[in-house]
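Submission checklist for the structure archive. All mandatory fields must be present; incomplete records are returned to the submitter.

[x] Identifier: DUF6602 domain-containing protein
[x] Organism: Mycolicibacterium porcinum
[x] Residue count: 261
[x] Sequence attached
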Amino acid sequence: MTGRNEPPEEMPQSRFDLAEAFRARQQQLESDLGFGRTVLAHPGTLGDATELDWRGMLADFLPRRYGVAKAFVIDVNGAMSDQLDIVVHDRHYSPLLFEVGGAHFIPAESVYAVFEIKQTLNKSHVEYAGDKIASVRRLRRTSVGFGTATGVAVAQEPKRILGGLLVLDSDWSPPLGVPLRDALNARNSDQALDFGCALRAGTFEAPDPTVGGELWVSSDPTTSLIFFALRLLSRLREMATVPAMDYAAYIESAQLSAKRD
């Protein structure tokens, strides 16, 4: 019998294995992508299935403040990007403008990051992804101040949009070695890739080309997804929020007017 002055027995603390959870999620994603490549012979069908798997993973993982969609990006001047497999966009300050026939059109001000999805990592896919990413970064983004509960938030300078390439395998040997670095270094600042995740090979993160730094490489295939996901979250946190879009500029661009009685 326990004495009155004895402290209660402590229950063992439950634990959650974060690394194991990510490994399990990676195995599931890798299995889904590999299954699709095995049984789907048509390139278009395979591409669609692969995109859904990657988009679903990011949509499940990212906080709800971020939207994840396949989309075109547009700006106040009416310019439009190529269609991106994944656009990570803001849900609050710069809402989605249009959805037409299942196609999404998102204002440039709303975009945090864009990704292209391919089956393998190689020079041509790095170049292709860089060109698609550049079509977004070159768009004009407006910014305007807005009222808050504590005063007026000033207009902010739009942050550099992140870009990357998501694949299952790498065609290179070693998969993340000198050929990858050469392909990345050949891109200009608009075409630069910040991330590349090859589930069966590893993940890389490149520094902001306007700042400089070393290329980070995680060559352990078993941690590809956790490295990519947590580094993406870190970079998104550094961006804070996207600028509040200037609706007046869009009204003027669309040549809308209203008469007062």
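[x] Structure attached
Curator remark: The mean pLDDT is 85. The CA atoms of residues 189 and 211 lie 11 Å apart.
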